[in-house]
Amino acid sequence: MAARKSHSIEDTTQVVQLTPEQRRALQEPHFLRQVSGPGSPRTIPLTTERVTIGRSESAEISVASQQISRAHAVLEKTPEGYTCRDLDSANGTWVQGVKVASAVLRDDDTVQLGDVVFEYHEA
């Protein structure tokens, strides 16, 4: 009978301090909560790098509202977080009540497209 070999296990656990931005990035997914307009209420997880919002059925977030352009706005993940960018829509994109061409979203921001309002949340 062969002798058993003993194995030693080294503890390589290290404590790593994360910045608030790094902690936020690990808390996936961020999400939108539609609070008004056709189709509300609903919660939409943001799990991809780019999400188009519009009236078109081909938009990742499709909303059946005549006040929204077919491709109204896009959310893009950047190192700073998600950015909301208007796609030259007819009625504009509003973040926190301010008309924007582009804005970095922060937790609890409101995003309004026509008669549709979303709340942005960092999980």
Commentary on this structure:
The chain is mainly beta and 123 residues long. It has one helix at residues 20-26; strands at residues 30-36, 42-46, 50-54, 61-62, 73-78, 81-86, 93-95, 98-100, 102-104, 110-113, 116-121. The strands form two sheets. Strands 2-1-11-10-7-8 form a six-stranded antiparallel sheet, with no helix packed on it. The longest helix has 7 residues, at 20-26. The protein is globular. The model has no long low-confidence stretch (mean pLDDT 86).
User: Which segments are poorly predicted (pLDDT under 50) over 5 or more consecutive residues?
Assistant: none
What is the end-to-end distance?
Answer: 57 Å
Secondary-structure class? mainly beta
What would you report as the Rg, rounded to the nearest angstrom?
A: 21 Å
Strand/helix succession? HEEEEEEEEEEE
Q: How would the global form be characterised?
A: globular
Number of helices: 1
What level of helicity do the residues show?
Answer: under 10%
Mean pLDDT: 86
Q: For the largest beta sheet, what order do the strands appear in spatially?
A: 2-1-11-10-7-8
Q: What's the story with the biggest beta sheet?
A: 6 strands, antiparallel
Q: What is the β-strand count?
A: 11
| Quaternary structure type | single chain
- Provide the β-strand percentage band: 35-45%
